[in-house]
Amino acid sequence: MKVTAVVGTQKGAFILRSDESRAEWRNEGPIFKGWKVTAVAAPAQGRVHLALASDIYGPAIQIGDGFSTSEWRQAADGPRFPPGDDRELDQIWTIFPHGEEIYAGVADAALFKSEDGGESWRLIEGLDRHPTRASWFPGAAGLCAHVLLSDPQNPDRLWCGVSAVGVLRSDDRGRSWTLKNEGVEKVVPDEEHPEIGCCVHGLAQDPDDANVIFRQDHRGTYRTRNGGDSWERIERGLPSGFGFPIAIDPTTKALFAVPLESDEYRLTPKGRLGVYRSRNGGDSWDLMRHGLPQENTYAGVLRSAVAVDSLDPCGIYVGTTSGSLHFSNDRGDTWRTLPHLLPRILCIEVFAE
Fold first, then answer.
1. All residues at 6 or more sequence positions from 92 whose CB lies less than 8 Å from its CB, including other chains
2. Residue 162 — φ and ψ, nearest 5°?
3. How far is it, in rounded angstroms, from Cα 253 to Cα 262?
4. Measured between alpha carbons, how far is 106 from 342 in angstroms, rounded to an integer?
5. Is 229 helix (H, G, I), strand (E, B) or coil?
6. End-to-end CA distance of the chain
7. Residue 196 has what pLDDT?
8. Percent of the chain residues past pLDDT 70, beyond the cut
9. What DSSP state is assigned to residue 163?
10. Is pLDDT of 324 > 80?
11. Which of 9, 66, 211, 331 is the most exposed place for a label (fewest CB within 10 A)?
């Protein structure tokens, strides 16, 4: 079996390859040198998709037939706001295959859908015309639709995380959306629309029950068992409720989070990098740090910079804002650091075949 890790950074993508042991990795890259690589999609319809961004040229989607370093082409009709819209598409935050369709979440907080393998895209107006839209407030990274989930048993049901609005759910394949923030502490309370103002950072979903979702928010770590209708805090054992990524092992359903010191500092607590694991659905968390740097490590971990592969035991991959990549091939029990110093790591996706 071959394992491919795609690491998107501030200055291009790096393709890392290993065998099933995931003990040694070889680097093929960078590709799209100098471009921000902001999202990587799982293979869909025989293709892979990368989202790029440039301060000069704007965002783009690149389509490839595999993770080759050369065989890519740019989607001719990528996501863009319609004529007359005064918004400028700043960044593509996520690309999400869903059946025969592919979705893209962007800043300024919009969703686009492709029905032809990513060649052309159209705006999903149901989210764009939400009744609370005029009161939506951007987070530090802007007003971004950055994560999507779906229900394998009900293809009409979708969830979208928007910073700093919260989680929205659609039960009609995106035609309409309902805010799902009950029980989550607000960051920017709104008097007219009290259901908004939550800054969701990351979502992870139970592979056996789509209605069980774990949520890393600006003001805490949460769980829902009813598809988002209500949320409860799950922070016992965590040093902080603040962080960006949250991920799940598809085999054992262990959860992984990387808390940061606080909203004000956004650094590893006490200069020690630690990954926290929960084996009981978030009821409690344990620190996993064997092999991780434990002194003078002051870096952040962004919302898309943690990935879990599908092997058993699973591998976990953690990229930092300082460009270091740490990985475990034994569910987080022990860790190694890749002997490469990459640019600022924005996203990671790992594929086994």
1. 38, 39, 51, 52, 53, 59, 61, 79, 104, 105, 106
2. -125, 125
3. 27
4. 25
5. coil
6. 6
7. 96
8. 99
9. E
10. yes
11. 66
